[in-house]
Automatic annotation (TrEMBL):
Protein's UniProt name: N-carbamoyl-L-amino-acid hydrolase
One Pfam family here: Peptidase_M20
Organism expressing this protein natively: Ottowia thiooxydans
Keywords: Hydrolase
SUPFAM superfamilies found in the cross-reference section: Bacterial exopeptidase dimerisation domain, Zn-dependent exopeptidases
Listed EC numbers: 3.5.1.6, 3.5.1.87
Top-level EC class: hydrolase
Length: 434
């Protein structure tokens, strides 16, 4: 079969070799990055570098072109016959959270490499370049700079992020870690673009689902409708007054825990109301605590701190919620004689999925008779950065037991193979189209 006539039907030839390669790569990644509970591949650390080296070595065996950019992102390319055409790109990140699972991020890079191995094994030459990108530093656990690697690739990482974001286990800055690894953070600081959006035809990312929907629905594959953006409030606090737990009557108390409890209950009521209206929304109070050094069992608490993470595919809804929450804070503050200060927030805008690519992925899954569902991505992904650069972007999710960011990630290789089949079919259809 010629490259020009490759279609979904080519997958009927079997995918056992790619499945075996994937299993081998996942096993090697796990074996080489085991930690106390799970696996640890720290951003700009030994584990992440090991993973990049593993993919680079495979790229060498496959005869792929290789490039490492100023931020350390790795690009492995199967050259197309017409190199003037913008490239098809796929990939994901290789780092993990501390003591995390083996598949978050890595599944997308492994899928891309298995796809290129299939093309090389069959002696097929694509019309346009096909590039797998292994992205650096996606996980916020290591540096509080969202999508550090992919943003650096587009010249979007800010100087203060390089100089002020430190890794908690080393105390060293992102700049220092990037420099020590042999890359060029001064070029990143200057905003030098490592990728030109005009040279990218589309970006497709395969990723494990990090929630329970596919497990609950007993489906191996999800086709993503959008990547939720977020509001993150890192420094919320409530100030009241410490008092004696037995002597202070209710009417004069300035109890911050009671005020905080009411606030988060009202947040949940707002969430339920908007959800019933069909709005896409998830809300989390991730931290909620008094100061154990000051507050005791026999004191009315006088200070409370908390965080909020609010996500939606609709950024206008997120901004509306901020306005409503600040109104709630004022109302509860006045009634309970406390001060609820939500502080500033950061706003990561939603990642828009390209409609045509989304429909193509759905069509490929249907043609291959792979059970699937269209679904939102609650977690953020590097795909969002590509989408925000105007690059047509889409995602495939693969079923994964026990959620993510924990050692118990349990993606079955059979489910991964179904997601891989959808990815391959879509790329084969896209290749060579104007």
């Amino acid at each position: 079969m010629s490259a020009e006539t490759i279609s979904v039907s080519s997958l009927a030839q079997g995918i056992e070799a790619e499945e075996a390669l994937a299993a081998q790569l996942f096993d090697t990644l796990r074996d080489r990055s085991r930690s106390t509970l799970g696996v640890t591949r720290a951003s700009f650390g030994e584990g992440e570098q090991m993973a990049h080296d593993l993919m680079s070595e495979l790229g060498d065996r496959l005869g792929l072109e290789k490039r490492v950019d100023a931020a350390g992102n790795l690009y492995l390319t199967l050259p197309g016959r017409d190199r003037s055409l913008p490239a098809i790109m796929t990939g994901s990140h290789m780092d993990t959270v501390p003591d995390g699972g083996n598949f978050d991020g890595a599944a997308g890079v492994v899928a891309g490499m298995c796809m290129l191995a299939r093309w090389v094994r069959a002696g097929r030459s694509p019309v346009r370049d096909i590039t797998v990108m292994a992205v650096r530093a996606e996980e916020l656990s290591w540096f509080p700079a969202p999508y550090a690697g992919s943003r650096a690739a587009f010249g979007l990482l800010q100087a203060n992020e390089l100089d002020e974001c430190t890794r908690p286990d080393t105390g060293r800055t992102l700049f220092d870690h990037m420099q020590a690894a042999g890359f060029a953070p001064e070029r990143v600081r200057a905003g030098e673009k490592q990728l030109d959006p005009q040279r990218i035809h589309c970006f497709l990312e395969l990723h494990i689902e990090q929630g329970p929907l596919l497990v609950q629905e007993k489906l191996p594959v999800g086709i993503v409708t959008g990547i939720r953006g977020n509001l993150r409030y890192k420094h919320c606090r409530i100030l009241g007054q410490y008092a004696h737990a037995g002597a202070e009557p209710r009417r004069s108390r300035r109890d911050v825990v009671m005020a905080g409890a009411e606030f988060v209950q009202r947040l949940e009521a707002l969430w339920i109301d908007l959800e019933e209206q069909g709005k896409d929304l998830v809300c989390t109070a991730g931290q909620f605590f008094t100061d154990a050094k000051v507050h005791t069992m026999t004191k009315v608490p006088g200070e409370l701190r908390f965080t909020m993470d609010i996500r939606s595919q609709d950024n206008s809804l997120l901004l509306e919620i901020d306005r409503r929450l600040r109104g709630l804070a004022q109302e509860i503050s006045a009634r309970r004689n406390v001060l609820i200060d939500l502080g500033d927030y950061t706003n990561a805008r939603p990642g828009l999925i390209d409609t045509a690519l989304h429909e193509r992925l759905l069509s490929c899954a249907e043609s291959l008779e792979i059970p699937h569902v269209a679904m939102a991505s609650g977690a953020g992904h590097d795909s969002a950065v590509f989408s925000q650069q105007g690059i047509p972007t889409a995602m495939v999710f693969v079923r994964n037991e026990h959620g993510s960011h924990n050692p118990d990630e349990a993606m079955e290789i059979a489910d991964f193979t179904q997601g891989l089949r959808v990815l391959i079919a879509a790329v084969e259809e896209i290749d060579g189209q104007p």
